[in-house]
Amino acid sequence: MIEIHNIHKSFNGKKVLDGVSGVFQTGKTNLLLGASGTGKSVLLKCIVGLVKPDIGSVTFDGTYFTNNKLDIKQEIRRKIGMLFQGSALFDSMTVEENVEFPLKMLNGMSKDERLDRVNFCLQRVGLEGTNKKMPSELSGGMKKRVGIARAIAPKCTYLFCDEPNSGLDPLTALKIDRLIKEITEEYNITTIVVTHDMNSVIEIGDNIMFLYEGKKLWEGTSDNILDSDVPELNEFIFANRLMRDAKKVEEEERNQAE
Amino acid sequence: MDEAILIGINSIFIVALVSTFIGAVSTVQVSYNMESAFIPRSTIGFIVREMIILELAPTITSIVLAGKVGSSIAGGLGTMQITEQVDALEVMGINSISYLVLPKIIAALLVFPMLVILAMFLGLMGGYLAGTLTGQLTAQEYITGIRIDFIPYNITFALIKSVIFAFLISSISSFRGYFTSGGALEVGSASTAAVTNSVIAVLIADFVCAQLLL
């Protein structure tokens, strides 16, 4: 479980996060939802320690992280897997070397053990047999899956995904979303996904936090998001025609039931 | 080792080319300026040797390497930074500066002196070839010249300079690359800044070394 408390962050006097607090549950896919520029990625970077919040704290399973000693932060970071928006695969390494990298650097595993783990992770994300390919030879969806394989290789406890399906076609995006959800439930890890994609929200949103201009305006699940009474959230959701239609169908079904 | 190959082995051709031609041109130009019956022709070899060992081999080689290696280091690190590869290392709990920058500085410190020694040898060889093939002076005169009043400390001085230049080029380029933010345009700017800053630093350090060590 990850807890954030009163996170504030400004860049050059511009407030990006304004007192965001919340709890991200273990075994659940927690979504940070919001339009572009609302501070979702900054909040994610504050949580993993890539950006230092001006005020506020983050705890991982009760262990204080934000301003703790470096060795404690490093210890927590070794339990973190992260999928970046652009995948962030190491260009000079093959797929196998990319996935093996965290194992080589952090775990005292033998070469054979590492290769077994690499093959297992690649198989888990449906990329068996791509070991010797370079990142430049992969499609966008494959890069994301290699990124997930690299994130889960060291048996992470916390998985962070920054817009995992941006730039992907709807079918591949759906596959990535489902893979993230499956992995979260299978390994009982705490997953936080930054997204502005309503398909992801409906598909995998166990716990959703809606950010607007750096503030948390709403929190709930994919089951009750269509019933929200927050105007900013409704404007965000129903900008999409499909969502408006979905809302109509839901209301019709409810009326018929009554 | 990979960094040493990248910085060293991949730079041998350009260093060899530049140093050979600089030695050759130096010999021809010194010869042109010393058309006097009162000055022995072997003096040309002496002057070329002093120029190459004290200044041309360490400084010109370093300036060439600032262009080739400096831009490569800054471009590579800058690209890693903007594509979040550096963030990926940090999230894994790896100190990205130790992992990415330190090997480049160590490799440069090891490889630059070797390249400077190569440049000295090839510069003198270029001078020999240019002098003898164009008939400016005989082989005997050139070899006599490069052996006159040889001071071993000059080699030490050149190697000390090469180590200082290696540190300046690798650290300035790494700094410029590591702290790149933005996009592809900024990576290009970082590479350009890395080269210009490194060259300026090398020239200033060259003057300071000459003042302090000679």
TrEMBL record, chain A:
<feature type="domain" description="ABC transporter">
    <location>
        <begin position="2"/>
        <end position="238"/>
    </location>
</feature>
<dbReference type="InterPro" id="IPR003439">
    <property type="entry name" value="ABC_transporter-like_ATP-bd"/>
</dbReference>
<dbReference type="GO" id="GO:0005524">
    <property type="term" value="F:ATP binding"/>
</dbReference>
<dbReference type="InterPro" id="IPR027417">
    <property type="entry name" value="P-loop_NTPase"/>
</dbReference>
<dbReference type="InterPro" id="IPR017871">
    <property type="entry name" value="ABC_transporter-like_CS"/>
</dbReference>
<keyword id="KW-0547">Nucleotide-binding</keyword>
<protein>
    <submittedName>
        <fullName>Phospholipid/cholesterol/gamma-HCH transport system ATP-binding protein</fullName>
    </submittedName>
</protein>
<dbReference type="GO" id="GO:0016887">
    <property type="term" value="F:ATP hydrolysis activity"/>
</dbReference>
<dbReference type="Pfam" id="PF00005">
    <property type="entry name" value="ABC_tran"/>
</dbReference>
<keyword id="KW-0813">Transport</keyword>
<dbReference type="InterPro" id="IPR003593">
    <property type="entry name" value="AAA+_ATPase"/>
</dbReference>
<keyword id="KW-0067">ATP-binding</keyword>
From TrEMBL, chain B:
<feature type="transmembrane region" description="Helical">
    <location>
        <begin position="192"/>
        <end position="213"/>
    </location>
</feature>
<keyword id="KW-0812">Transmembrane</keyword>
<dbReference type="InterPro" id="IPR030802">
    <property type="entry name" value="Permease_MalE"/>
</dbReference>
<dbReference type="GO" id="GO:0043190">
    <property type="term" value="C:ATP-binding cassette (ABC) transporter complex"/>
</dbReference>
<protein>
    <submittedName>
        <fullName>Phospholipid/cholesterol/gamma-HCH transport system permease protein</fullName>
    </submittedName>
</protein>
<feature type="transmembrane region" description="Helical">
    <location>
        <begin position="12"/>
        <end position="32"/>
    </location>
</feature>
<keyword id="KW-0472">Membrane</keyword>
<feature type="transmembrane region" description="Helical">
    <location>
        <begin position="105"/>
        <end position="130"/>
    </location>
</feature>
<dbReference type="Pfam" id="PF02405">
    <property type="entry name" value="MlaE"/>
</dbReference>
<dbReference type="GO" id="GO:0005548">
    <property type="term" value="F:phospholipid transporter activity"/>
</dbReference>
<keyword id="KW-1133">Transmembrane helix</keyword>
<feature type="transmembrane region" description="Helical">
    <location>
        <begin position="151"/>
        <end position="172"/>
    </location>
</feature>
